[in-house]
Every structure is written in C-alpha cells, then in structure tokens.
Design goal:
Number of strands: 7
Helix content: 55-70%
Shape: elongated
Oligomer: single chain
Radius of gyration: 30 Å
Structural class: alpha+beta
Strand order of the largest sheet: 2-4-5-7-6
Number of helices: 8
Strand content: 5-15%
C-alpha cells in the first residue's frame, strides 16, 4: 500500500512539474510571438529576448533574431533604393524639361506658311512626339513626388460625384480625339469622403486617360451608391498576366500606345495615401478597375 502511495505521489509530482513546464513554455512562446509582431510593425532595432533557460527556445530566439537582422538590412537597402530612384527620376525630369522647352520654342518660331505639305506632316509628327515626351516628363516628375506625400495631403470633405463629373467633362476633347463615347452611370446619391481633392482629381484623370489608351471604342464609368468607382473598357491588348502587373511602376504592355506604366502606378499610390484600395481584373476581354475609399 505504501509503495502505491509513494508511486502516486511521485507521479503527481512529475505531472505537476511537467504541467508547470508546459505552462511556462507556452507563456514564453506567446511572448516571443508578441515581441516578433511588435518588432515587425514598428521601426525599431530591438531583438527578441527570452527569460527561459530552455535550450530549444533559446535556439529559436537566436534564429529569429538572425532573420530579423537580415530583414532589417533588406528594408534599409529597399528604402535607400527608393530614395535613389526618387532622386534619379526628379533629376531626369528636370534635365529633360530644359531641352523640351527649347524644342517647343523653336517649333513655335517656325513659319509654317512657307512649308510644303510633306514638311507640315513631318512637323506635326515632331509636335506630337514632343507632346508625348512632355507628358512623360511630367508623369516622371509627379511619380517622384508621390513616393513620399502622405504628410502633404490636405484631406477635406469632398463629393465624389462632383469631382468625377468635372474630370469626365474636362476629358471631352480627349474622348473626341480617340473616338471614344463613354457610358456614365453615376449615382444620384451624393457620396462624400474626407480625401485630398487634388489627389482625387489626379486619380480620376489617370484612370480615364489609361482607359482611353487601352479602350477599343467602349468605356464605362460608374459610381455606385456604396461609393465604389468602377471604370471598364474593352481591350484585346491585355491578358491575365499583364493585368496582374498593370500597377507596377514602369511596366509596359506590348503594343499599347504611350504605355509608360507610370499613370496607374501614380493613381494607385494616391489612392493608398488617401486610405483607399485600387484593384484591377480582366473579365470577358474587359479591363475593370475599381476604387474604394
């Protein structure tokens, strides 16, 4: 009887020690999880520390700290790369503006009355290419400025309906030039949000310009009562792979005219800076882009 009693006491003691060990291990694992989450969400050089003497937990903490140091190094390199890119784009756009201004000036000075028809045709072509290059230069400059603009936004109460209608009306000449007749479906309900008005205009302008660029005669612009803005156009120039990368900066689509890949990248960044989301998908040969704030 005494032997069974002692065995019971020993078993109970062992179970108690094991339960305590499991409890402390679970608590330490939870602390590691919380510390890792906090470090990843904040800009800190902190590392994971543990109070347990468990060899496996110590090994886990060492491994995680090694990976955190690698991740921190990559993050610094990424930020430096973005800064270098921003500076390079800004410098390039500034460098291009001076010769472009000179080119435009000399083109305006030409006496077009004394030109032959063939010379006028060549001059119109030069004019068009100069305009394209000017547009690209402005897009480069704007893109560099949107990389770090979150502190510059002036958010106020704006009506999405009014801004969208204003941008659509101001795009009339472009619709006419490209022989595109847009179909509008804008809700009568006034959709108001706290956003930066200039950003919102640029977002709508870039989306419309992009849709006209890819459109094959059909363009649908919607603003629903839930605040979702949708712009879609029929296109055979894009496939599922292209659409997945359509917001990548400088990604170009083969056979797409004036496709520099900057306009949509700018629009997406501005949407995100205003706390919204922008998505794109392809359905039945229609590129559909949605914006939600």
């Amino acid at each position: 009887m005494d032997i069974w009693f002692y065995l019971f006491i020993l078993s109970l003691g062992a179970m108690t020690i094991l339960a305590c060990k499991i409890f402390f291990l679970k608590r330490e694992i939870k602390n590691i999880e919380l510390s890792l989450s906090k470090i990843l969400k904040s800009e800190t050089n902190s590392l994971i520390t543990i109070s347990s003497n468990d060899r496996e937990l110590k090994s886990l903490a060492v491994t995680l700290n090694v990976e955190l140091k690698k991740l921190r190094k990559l993050e610094i390199e990424y930020r430096q790369g973005n800064l270098d890119l921003k500076n390079a784009i800004t410098n390039i756009s500034h460098d291009l503006r001076t010769p472009l201004t000179a080119i435009r000036g000399y083109l305006d000075l030409l006496d077009r009355k004394d030109l032959t028809d063939k010379q006028r045709e060549y001059l119109r072509y030069i004019d068009k290419k100069a305009d394209d290059l000017t547009h690209l230069t402005e897009e480069l400059f704007t893109y560099s400025k949107t990389l770090e603009r979150s502190d510059e936004l002036h958010k106020e109460k704006v009506c999405l309906n009014d801004i969208l209608e204003e941008v659509v009306c101001s795009s009339y000449s472009l619709f006419k030039e490209k022989a595109v007749e847009p179909t509008l479906a804008i809700t009568e309900k006034k959709i108001t949000k706290y956003l930066d008005e200039n950003s919102l205009k640029r977002i709508f302008e870039n989306l419309i310009y992009n849709s006209i660029k890819y459109s094959e005669g059909e363009l649908i612009i919607k603003l629903e009562s839930n605040g979702m803005m949708t712009i879609s156009n029929r296109t055979t120039k894009l496939d599922a792979t292209s659409v997945k990368r359509i917001f990548d900066r400088f990604y170009t689509v083969e056979n797409a005219q004036k496709s520099n890949g900057i306009g949509l990248a700018i629009a997406k960044q501005l949407v995100e800076l205003n706390g919204g989301k922008m998505k794109a998908h392809l359905k039945d040969e229609h590129l559909i882009i949605t914006v939600e704030f």
